[in-house]
Design a protein that fits this description.
This protein is of the alpha+beta class. Among the domains are: 238 residues, Sandwich (Immunoglobulin-like), CATH 2.60.40.1760; 286 residues, TIM Barrel, CATH 3.20.20.80. Helices cover 18% and strands 21% of the residues. Strands 4, 5, 6, 7, 13, 15, 16, 19 and 28 form a nine-stranded mixed beta sheet that branches. It has a nine-stranded parallel beta sheet with strand order 30-29-27-26-22-21-20-32-31. Strands 11-12-18-17-14 form a five-stranded antiparallel beta sheet, with no helix packed on it. Helix 10 links the parallel strand 29 and strand 30. Helix 7 packs across helix 9. The longest helix is centred in the middle third of the chain and has 17 residues. The radius of gyration is 27 Å and the shape is globular.
C-alpha cells in the first residue's frame, strides 16, 4: 500500500492487475470466514453450484459459512479507460463473463468524487439507461479536495475499489474480496472490514455493536412489533466502524430499495440490494464524532425542537373521551408530576378517520385543547396516512379533495390503490407528489382551525396495511416477485404493506417504499410550519436517512418487559448516530402489562431519553405515574425532577446537534474512542460530553455496575455523601458545573413553572478509571453522571420562557453560528448555563420540497 506521502492524484489512476489469476481460474481454498455466498437467491445443490463456476463445501447446520461460495478471482467486471475529471475520476466497467442473474448490465460507469478532505463518494451506474436514484438532496461539490485523508486504488480485473487511510495505510474498504454484480433487480458488492466493530444499519432490535458472525440485516420498512432479527420501521444504510488504533470511519449507501446487509467473521460485509444504483459515501473521521458530523453534512442536520417538546409527554390508547383525558391531566397535577404535553391516540377521531373528531365522546374537544393551552400545556394527536375511502361522496373532505386532486397512490390499472387500516378501506397519499403536500397542508389547516393542536404524531407510515398489498391483491410481476427477496418479515415485499408495483409520482412503490415515512414527515413539518408559523414538532414511526432534519422518532410498539428496557438504550444511541436525536421508547412499555418495578426503572431511564413519553395499549393496565404506590410515585417524581433540572443543558445539546451536527445522547465510545473498553458499552449512555447514565436494567437489582473511563468523576449524591448510589460525573473543561440549573418561575416550560422541581444536587469528586458498582437507595433515580459542562459550550442568549420562533429558518447547509459566552472560571461551584431564545434562527428548515431538474427533491 502506498505510504502517506503519495499524492492523491497519482493514487486515483493506479490500476492493479490481479496477479497470477488467469481467466476462469478457480481456487476453492478459502477460509470459512472469508467465503462469499454464490447462491444468494436460493439454496443450491452441488451441481447447480459448480455450474456457476463456484465452490461447494458442505458445512454444519445453522448460521455459518455458505456451502456454495465464490472461488478466488471469480470473474465479473473489468475496469477500463480510467480518466481524470475535475472532481476526481471516472472509469468504464465491462462485464467479462455472464452472470447467473436476469437483466445483467454489461457496461457500467464508475465515478469517484473527492468531495472533501474527509469525504469520498463513488457511484456505479448503467450509462445506457436511467435508473431510479434516491431523490434526497445531497451536497453538490464543484472541483475536488486538494488534499485528502484517504487514498484510492482500482483493481483492474476482477474489478475492485480499495479505500485506505493515508496516515496509517489501514484499508477501510476493499471490494476486491468478492465479485461485483449489477443486474436490473440485483446489485451486490462486498468489502473487507478493518475490525469486528461495526455499528449502525438500522432499524433493528440489536445491541450497539453488530455481530459479524454470519448476521443478516434486512432494510425494508415494516409495521412490526420490535423483536430481534426482524426488519422494523426504518431504513438507515449507514454504518460506523472503529479501527484498532481508535480511529473511526463510516460508510453510507444511498439506496432505498429492499436490501440485505450480510456480515461475516473474516470480517467482511456484503451489500445486496434489489434496485437503484450503488451510490456510496465514505467518511474518514478520523474520530467517531467527526464521522457522524460528516454523515450529517450529507443527509442534513437535525431540526431544532421547541423547548416544550423536551418536557414530559403522556399518552394512552384508551383515553376515550375528553372527560377521561381531562381527568388524566388533573390527576397528574394532583400527584405533583410535571407534564408539558398531553396526547390522544385514535380515540378522538370519528370512526378512526383523520382530521375528524367524535362529536359525542369528544364533543368539547376544541375547548379541552384551549383549556390545556390556558394551563400552559401543549397538545398532540395521532394522524395516520391511510385515508378512509368507504363513505358516500361528499361526506369526507380529505378523501373527496384528495380524489379530485389526484394525490393517492395508484394501482396497476391507474386507480387509487385501496388497502385496509383502522377506519376500514383506505387509500394512501403519495407524499412524493408536490400536490399532495398542498392537499396535506389544507387538511392540517382545516383541522387546526377547529382544534388548535401543537404538533403531529404520524404513525402507521411504513405504510402499514392490514391486507397484503391491496383489497384486490397485487399483480403477478417482477416487482411483486423479484428474483431476489431480502429477508423481510413475511417473506414478500407486499407483506404488511401495499403492492410494490403500485405507482407514485416519482417512481414505483418498489423503489420508494422505505421513503414513505420520510416524505410524510416532510409534508407534516412543512404543513405545521405554514399553519402555526412556529417551530414544528413531529414524531414519526417510519424513518429513512435524513429523517432527523424534519421529525423525531419513537421506537414503536415495544413490549412491557426488561429485555425491551435494555434494547431501548442502543436504539436511542443508534438513532443519534443516524441524525435523529429526538428519540425515545414508550416508557414502561406499550404492549402488555407493566409491573411497578419495571415502570419505575423505565421512568428513571426514560428521564434521559431525548424524547420522553409514557404511552401504552388500551388493553394493558394503567401506567401513568400516579397509578402506582406512593413509594413508586416518589421515585418517578424524583426522576422527572432531575430531568427538568437538566432541561437547559438538554436544550443546548439539541442546539449543538442542529447547528453543528453533534449527537445529543451518545455512546461512550464517541467521547472515549481510544479506550477500547467503551466500544461495546450499550447499557449506559451519555448526554453530550457531560452526563453519563447507568440505569438499572434487571428486575430485583439493588446494585448497578458501569464502566467509567479515566478521569475525575463527581457524585450527584451530595458533597460529603458516600458514593452509595449509581451516580457519578466526569470533570471536564474548566471544572465549573453548569448543567444543574434551578430555573425561576416564568422562565421554563409548565412542569418547571409548577415549582415542583427541587434544587440541583451538589457534587463530590472521585478519581481514576474503574468499574463502579453502587447501591440505589430504595427506588431512587438510576445512574446519571454529570461532568462539568462549561458555559463556553452554551449560547449567549438569556434564559426565558419557551417562545416559538417566526417562520423563517436556515437552509440545509446554512446553520446558525452560536455566539460564544466566556468560559467560566475554574472551580467546583454551580454555574447557570444560558439557553437560547426560540426566536433567533433556531428553526428546523423550511425547504421541504424543492424542484430540481423538473422533479421534487426530498430535503
Amino acid at each position: 500500500m502506498p505510504g502517506p506521502g503519495v499524492a492523491a492524484a497519482a493514487l486515483l489512476a493506479l490500476l492493479v492487475p490481479a496477479a497470477g489469476l488467469g481467466a476462469g481460474a478457480t481456487d476453492c481454498d478459502v477460509s470459512p470466514g472469508s467465503r462469499f455466498d454464490c447462491g444468494p437467491e436460493r439454496l443450491l445443490a452441488r451441481e447447480g453450484c459448480e455450474a456457476r463456476g463456484c465452490c461447494y463445501v458442505p458445512a454444519g447446520p445453522g448460521p455459518g459459512p455458505p456451502w456454495c461460495f465464490f472461488p478466488r478471482g471469480y470473474r465479473s467486471y473489468r475496469a477500463e479507460n480510467v480518466t481524470a475529471t475535475g472532481s476526481g475520476y471516472t472509469a468504464r466497467l465491462r462485464r467479462v463473463a455472464a452472470s447467473f442473474l436476469p437483466g445483467d448490465v454489461g457496461c457500467l460507469r464508475l465515478d469517484v468524487l473527492l468531495e472533501t478532505p474527509a469525504r469520498l463518494r463513488f457511484t456505479l451506474r448503467d450509462p445506457a439507461r436511467q435508473r431510479y436514484e434516491v431523490p434526497l438532496a445531497t451536497p453538490r461539490v464543484s472541483g475536488q479536495a486538494a488534499t485528502t485523508l484517504y487514498g484510492v486504488q482500482v483493481n483492474e480485473e476482477p474489478f475492485g475499489l480499495v479505500v485506505y487511510r493515508q496516515r496509517s495505510g489501514q484499508v477501510l474498504l476493499n471490494t476486491t474480496v468478492a465479485p461485483l454484480f449489477f443486474a436490473d433487480q440485483f446489485l451486490q458488492i462486498s468489502t473487507s472490514l478493518p475490525s469486528h466493530f461495526i455499528s449502525g444499519l438500522g432499524e433493528h432490535l440489536t445491541p450497539l455493536v453488530l455481530d459479524t458472525a454470519w448476521t443478516r440485516v434486512t432494510l425494508w420498512n415494516r409495521d412490526m412489533a420490535p423483536v430481534p432479527q426482524v426488519n422494523l420501521y426504518g431504513s438507515h444504510p449507514f454504518y460506523l466502524g472503529m479501527e484498532d488504533d481508535g480511529s473511526a470511519y463510516g460508510v453510507f449507501l444511498l439506496n432505498s430499495n429492499a436490501m440485505d446487509v450480510l456480515l461475516q467473521p473474516s470480517p467482511a460485509l456484503t451489500w445486496r440490494t434489489t434496485g437503484g444504483i450503488l451510490d456510496f459515501y465514505v467518511f474518514l473521521g478520523p474520530d467517531p464524532k467527526s464521522v457522524v458530523r460528516q454523515y450529517l453534512d450529507v443527509i442534513g442536520f437535525p431540526f431544532m425542537p421547541p423547548y416544550w417538546g423536551l418536557g414530559f409527554h403522556l399518552c394512552r390508547w384508551g383515553y376515550s373521551s375528553t372527560d377521561i383525558t381531562r381527568q388524566v391531566v388533573a390527576n397528574m397535577s394532583a400527584a405533583r408530576f410535571p407534564l408539558d404535553v398531553q396526547w390522544n391516540d385514535l380515540d378522538y377521531a370519528d370512526a378512526k378517520r383523520d382530521f375528524t373528531f367524535n362529536k359525542r365522546s369528544f364533543k368539547d374537544y376544541p375547548e379541552m385543547v384551549q383549556d390545556f393551552h390556558r394551563r400552559g400545556l401543549r397538545y398532540i394527536m395521532i394522524v395516520d396516512p391511510g385515508i378512509s375511502s368507504s363513505g358516500p361522496p361528499g361526506t369526507y373532505k380529505p378523501y373527496d379533495e384528495g380524489l379530485k386532486r389526484g394525490v393517492f397512490i395508484r394501482n396497476a390499472t391507474g386507480q387509487p390503490l385501496i388497502g385496509k387500516v383502522w377506519p376500514g378501506p383506505t387509500v394512501f397519499p403519495d407524499f412524493t407528489n408536490p400536490e399532495t403536500h398542498e392537499w396535506w397542508h389544507d387538511m392540517v389547516k382545516d383541522f387546526h382551525d377547529q382544534v388548535p393542536f401543537d404538533g403531529m404524531w404520524i404513525d402507521m407510515n411504513e405504510p402499514s396495511n392490514f391486507v397484503e398489498g391491496s383489497q384486490d391483491g397485487c399483480p403477478n410481476n417482477n416487482l411483486e416477485h423479484p428474483p431476489y427477496v431480502p429477508g423481510v418479515f413475511g417473506g414478500r415485499l407486499q407483506a404488511g404493506t401495499i403492492c410494490a408495483s403500485s405507482q407514485q409520482y416519482l417512481s414505483s412503490h418498489y423503489n420508494l417504499h422505505s421513503l414513505y415515512g420520510l416524505t410524510e414527515a416532510i409534508a407534516s413539518h412543512d404543513a405545521l410550519l405554514r399553519v402555526r408559523g412556529t417551530r414544528p414538532f413531529v414524531i414519526s414511526r417510519s424513518t429513512f436517512a435524513g429523517h432527523g432534519r424534519y421529525a423525531g422518532h419513537w421506537t414503536g410498539d415495544v413490549g412491557s418487559n426488561w429485555e425491551q428496557l435494555y434494547y431501548s438504550i442502543p436504539e436511542v444511541l443508534l438513532f443519534n448516530l443516524f441524525g435523529v436525536p429526538l428519540v425515545g421508547a414508550d416508557i414502561c412499555g406499550f404492549a402488555g402489562d407493566t409491573s411497578e418495578e419495571l415502570c419505575v426503572r423505565w421512568t428513571q431511564l426514560g428521564a434521559f431519553y431525548p424524547f420522553m413519553r409514557n404511552h401504552n395499549d388500551h388493553g394493558a393496565r394503567p401506567q401513568e405515574p400516579y397509578a402506582f404506590s406512593p413509594a413508586a410515585q416518589a421515585a418517578m417524581r424524583s426522576a422527572l425532577h432531575l430531568r427538568y433540572s437538566l432541561l437547559p443543558f438538554l436544550y443546548t445539546l439539541f442546539h449543538r446537534a442542529h447547528s453543528a451536527g453533534e449527537t445529543v445522547a451518545r455512546p461512550l465510545f464517541l467521547e472515549f474512542p481510544q479506550d477500547r473498553n467503551t466500544w461495546a458499552v450499550d447499557r449506559q449512555l451519555m448526554w453530550g460530553a457531560a452526563l453519563l447514565i447507568t440505569p438499572v436494567l434487571e428486575a430485583g437489582q439493588t446494585k448497578v455496575s458501569g464502566y467509567f473511563p479515566p478521569g475525575t468523576w463527581y457524585s450527584l449524591a451530595g458533597v460529603g455523601a458516600p458514593l452509595t448510589s449509581p451516580v457519578a460525573a466526569r470533570g471536564l473543561c474548566c471544572g465549573a458545573l453548569c448543567a444543574f440549573l434551578h430555573p425561576t418561575a416564568g422562565t421554563s416550560p409548565p412542569g418547571l413553572c409548577s415549582g415542583l422541581v427541587p434544587h440541583p444536587p451538589s457534587l463530590v469528586a472521585i478519581r481514576g478509571s474503574q468499574q463502579w458498582a453502587g447501591t440505589p437507595s430504595g427506588m431512587q433515580h438510576p445512574a446519571p453522571a454529570l461532568s462539568s459542562f462549561c458555559c463556553h459550550l452554551g449560547l449567549h442568549h438569556p434564559q426565558q420562557r419557551a417562545v416559538d420562533p417566526p417562520a423563517s429558518s436556515p437552509g440545509h447547509h446554512q446553520r446558525p453560528r452560536p455566539r460564544r459566552a466566556h468560559p467560566a472560571a475554574a472551580g467546583a461551584r454551580v454555574q447557570h448555563c444560558r439557553v437560547p431564545q426560540e426566536g433567533h434562527g433556531l428553526g428546523g428548515g423550511t425547504d421541504t420540497g424543492r424542484l430540481r431538474q423538473g422533479r421534487p427533491v426530498l430535503g
